[in-house]
Amino acid sequence: MEPARVGRTTSGGYSSLVTSASVSRRRALAAGLGVVAAAVPAGCTQDVGPVRRLRFATGPEGGPYNAFGTALAKAVAGSGSRLAIVPVGTAASVDNLRRLQDGSVELALAMADAAQDAVLGREPFSRPSAAVTALARVYVNYTHLVVPAEGPVRSLSDLAGRPVAAGAAGSGVQVVAGRLLRAAGLTGERAVTERRLGLAASVTALREGTVDALIWSGGVPTPALSTLAGELPLRFVPLEGQVSALRERYGPVYTAVTIPAGAYGLTEPVGTIGVGNYLMARADVPEGAVREVLQVVFDRWRVLLREVTAGARLEPRFAISTAEVPLHPGAVAYYRSVYD
């Protein structure tokens, strides 16, 4: 099933819906998808019939992607749908996208920059992928550069030559951290020593002093960082000065956002880099299944985002802003039904 696109105004709002070339329903239904039976069309969820399993690549246990995936699985199970969402623990964005490409999962979460790289075939992906499509932009990650308040690091440039926890291998944090450090000129003789650590290990390393900083991309507040801020005085280093350089090289997947005063005990807001998170699907997932998933997402978004990021809202006009990543035809049909 070919991906489709939603027409957008220059401001990112909704204008019109346009589908690309369609493929026969038989091809979609023939795809394996790890499915135990044929899909139940949208609107027929109360009919007796077999359950369709959709494997959902999330992230490490205890992380925000895993929390979202677990919440979505519960919400779908309680909705009366004939779908069953099966969360799969992973290393997060890059790992998730590779699993979408090889067909070992049907759904995934991924950061916008990594998803765009997969579609365009940019590093770390070796070739463009037509299998990767978006269902919705669900919330925004805030890039955190966290250092001990009493330490020597006051700015991004002060990281030169220092050990930095820069995201686990296969994660979206690793992608944005690497780009951020290169944009700041922290290469060659000024390069940092990047430690490939997930969030929990990064927090431990900063607490124990084996790294001088950690880079994290997630919702605000991130619980692990809130806990750390209660144990150790922290500084959140401003990063908004790098937004223009990142946008110039990689496009509008990067935006200027602000960590608000009050989060983590901050007395003043901190400008930083925002990156969207996309709910993704393989292009060959049947349209009816996608529409059912999105119906649950928009019905239960408060529950889904509660453990992920505070104060976020999910609206269709926000959700369709997926840049270079095409929307799945089932997502196009869902948004058309919302706007018609």
> What would the average pLDDT be, to the nearest integer?
87
- Portion in helices: 25-40%
Q: The biggest beta sheet, please?
A: 10 strands, mixed
- The fraction of residues in strands falls at 15-25%
Report the order of strands and helices: EEHEHEHEHEEHEHEHEHEEHHHH
Number of helices: 12
Overall 3D form: globular
Structural class: alpha/beta
What is the CA-CA span between the terminal residues?
Answer: 23 Å
How many beta strands in the DSSP annotation? Answer: 12
Instruction: Report Rg.
Output: 20 Å
Low-confidence stretches: 5-48
Describe the structure.
- With 340 residues, the chain is of the alpha/beta class.
- The chain is 33% helix and 23% strand.
- It is built from twelve helices and twelve strands.
- Helix 2 (64-77) links the parallel strand 3 and strand 4.
- Helix 9 (287-299) crosses helix 12.
- The longest helix has 14 residues, at 64-77.
- The radius of gyration is 20 Å and the shape is globular.
- The model is unreliable at 5-48 (pLDDT under 50).
List keywords for this structure.
alpha/beta, 23% strand, 340 residues, two-stranded antiparallel ribbon, 12 helices, 33% helix, globular
